[in-house]
Each structure stands twice: as C-alpha cells, then as structure tokens.
Amino acid sequence: MAISLSKLFMRTISQNPNENQTGVSLWTLEDIEKAQAKQKALALEAERVQEDIAMEEDEFDDGGISDSAMMEIDLEIQGGP
User: Fold this and answer.
1) Which residues, at least 6 apart from 20, have a Cβ–Cβ distance to it below 8 Å?
2) Res. 18 pLDDT band, cuts 50 70 90
3) Cα(39)–Cα(25) distance, rounded to whole angstroms?
4) At 42, phi and psi to the nearest 5?
5) What is the mean pLDDT of residues 35-52?
6) Which segment, 5-9, 19-23, 57-61, 65-69, is predicted with the most confidence on average?
7) What 3-state DSSP class applies to 80?
C-alpha cells in the first residue's frame, strides 16, 4: 500500500504543470505580487504601531520604569493564613 501511494505521489509531482495551473505550491505572478503587497502593508502597519508606542513612552517619560516593562511584571498574590 505504501509503495503504491508513493508511486502515485511521485507521478503526480513529476508532471509538467501548465503555466496557468495553480496548485498548493504553484503561484502565479499575480499571487506573488499580492502576497508581497500584503507583507509590505503589514510591515508598514507594524512600524507605525512601534512608532506610536515609542511616542507614548517618550511623552510621559519621567525616568522611571517604562509602561512596557510594567506590563511584563508577573505579580503573584499569595493569600490565606
């Protein structure tokens, strides 16, 4: 069974696909351009968010602990006698 499945798999991946045929791993030029545009948009958005965070921290900078450091502190509450 495993040999017949592997033969089928090898035959399938060895076929010469048409240029316009799209599959799991075959992207057209349009697909690649769309993915690149999406990645650039996400990178710009992340950069904008980082700038906003930096501006917020600078706005109230009093030389103490930054807001991001305060958010990362793990507080354990111990209760009971």
Assistant:
1) 28
2) low
3) 18
4) -65, -40
5) 91
6) 5-9
7) coil
Q: In terms of pTM, does the model score above 0.70?
A: no
Residues 6+ apart with CB under 8 A from 31: 22
CA dihedral sign of residues 66, 67, 72, 77: positive
Residue linked to tokens 């502190």: 73
The beta strand positions in 20-68, using DSSP E, are none
In 10 A of CB 19, how many CB atoms?
A: 8
Amino acid at 68: S
How far is the C-alpha of 34 from the C-alpha of 40, rounded, in Å? 10
Sequence spans of domains, the chain: 27-60
Angle at 66 between CA 61 and CA 72, to 5 degrees: 165
